[in-house]
Design brief:
Radius of gyration: 22 Å
Order of helices and strands: EHHHEH
Largest sheet: 2 strands, antiparallel
Structural class: mainly alpha
Distance between the termini: 27 Å
Number of strands: 2
Helix content: over 70%
Number of domains: 1
Length: about 100
């Protein structure tokens, strides 16, 4: 008799992590928008130092967004590696491992 198949708990945890990472990625992309827009408008601070600071802010903002996207991509890739269903024995072993009880 074949063992019963159940949802993969590791996959479910990865899905939860993906949702959280996507939410944080969105927050990161929005984090400096207001400051950056205010600086670009020239109404907050002007001059060569302000221009240099604004350029650096923009570069860091874009870099942070790219890094956040890489985290999301890595989680999606890992999610694809795990089957949606596993045997009940495998699921129990995964739950013990995720709980730190090998």
């Amino acid at each position: 008799m074949a063992e019963r198949m159940v949802p993969n708990p590791r996959r479910e945890r990865l899905r939860q992590l993906l949702v959280e990472a996507e939410d944080r990625s969105h927050e990161i992309r929005q984090a400096y928008q207001r400051a950056f827009a205010a600086m670009r408008a020239g109404k907050v601070w002007t001059g060569p130092t302000a221009a240099a600071w604004t350029t650096e802010l923009e570069e860091r903002h874009h870099r942070l967004g790219r890094l956040a996207r890489r985290v999301v991509d890595a989680i999606e890739e890992e999610l694809r590696r795990h089957p949606p269903l596993v045997t009940e024995t495998e699921a129990n072993a995964m739950r013990r491992e995720m709980a730190g009880r090998l």
